[in-house]
Amino acid sequence: MRYVIWGLxxxxxxxxxxxFPCLVLLYGDMPGGYGFWWDFSMALGFAAASMMxxxxxxxxxxxxxxxxxxxxxIYYFHKHISLLLFLFAxxxxxxxxxxxxxxxxxxxxxxxxxxxxxxxxSLIMLALIVVSSLFRxxxxxxxxxxxxxxxxxxxxxxxxxxxxxxGVGYYISTPAKRIIWGMIMGSWLLLFLYVRxxxxxxxxxxxxxxxxxxxxxxxxxxxxxxxxxxQEFDFQPGQFVWLTMFHSPFSMKEHPFxxxxxxxxxxxLHFTIKELGxxxxxxxxxxxxxxxxxxxxxxxxxxxxxxxxxxxxxxAGGIGIAPIRSMLRTLAxxxxxxxxxxxxxxxxxxxxxxxxxxxALKERLDLKIIYLLEHSPEGWQGExxxxxxxxxxxxxxxxxxxxxxxxxxxxxxIHLAExxxxxxxxxxxxxxxxxxxxx
Amino acid sequence: xRLMLAKILVVLTGVMxxxxxxxxxxxxxx
Lengths: 439, 30
Description:
By secondary structure, chain A is an alpha/beta fold. Chain A has 13 helices and twelve strands.
């Protein structure tokens, strides 16, 4: 319940802050109208500027604010609200261009001042941010390069917007409004320093080192790390971290990975990582003693957040098994006596990461495992094909509507599983998923 | 469910901003 209250509190804070500059416009002396469309366009422009400032807070990973939602959903929200921000910024320009002929005059090279130019360049940068984020994979932009470009464009676009607002000046002419905009700019600068300086320095002070790298089925490796002269952090099974290796924490070259070990086993942390990109392909070459920096834990995808009296159902696709293995091992370490079910889908039997480990867990847990293979070998005893209502109904316990479900895997698989379970009568609040495909 | 809530919040933010922008434009020009 306290997560719900805190969640509502942070949503209210977000809405107030997003609307703040528009409300400020309505406060105190108003400069007088220039016409309905002109003023409407200006209000949309201010809202877009305020949403831009808030983007930096959304992605600063403040644990207290992220806790009720899970940081994955905050990034999901960030992605979608960015589109709205871009629409408002574009609408600000389009309304002016279509309703105010004077704006075309202001855009002539001879008339163009640097404040207007700042606004135009900022809008172009916003468009680049949106396109490069939505189509990163299609454009084959490396994740690390994309992050650097994204951070640079976002900071530059925001600074240019502040120059644009300050230069136009008409709506922030009163001292009170100037103070408020000064505060917005000051808080953004402080946040920038916190994210790029204070946080990396903190990570440097708590380093980890590689103990070993274990090859797993499914083209994956388990990275085992141990804390160096400090206690490892407490985490809930199923949570994830941002991990930096081969670079300094100042480099912005960090990647989100789920913890695959149990919090009951102190002293080391395991991350099981599939070879999907340049960084994950380098994991196997990490030598013992290699420095690792950990920002975390994050995420609400955990059995510790959702108590289910009669047990859990886990649905994993591919490497989505990593956080689920953490939860299963935790249940085994805690001597859990409830009945649990695991559906685990992969293309072939060779791709079933932790296959032997999961089978061994059945000795320590009342666990039913249903393997689903896209291409099954001859004599295969498990299921073949994709997760269907028939497969779910065949293997779920009778009281399946009273259970909590944890689903992790490719996004289409998550949506499909949630849809099917909801259709079978499972309440939406019993369905928990983890998105790890941010961009 | 969380995805749906996130989408609802995006729509809510958009609607509220447009509403305040409309009020501002009307007040300025009344």
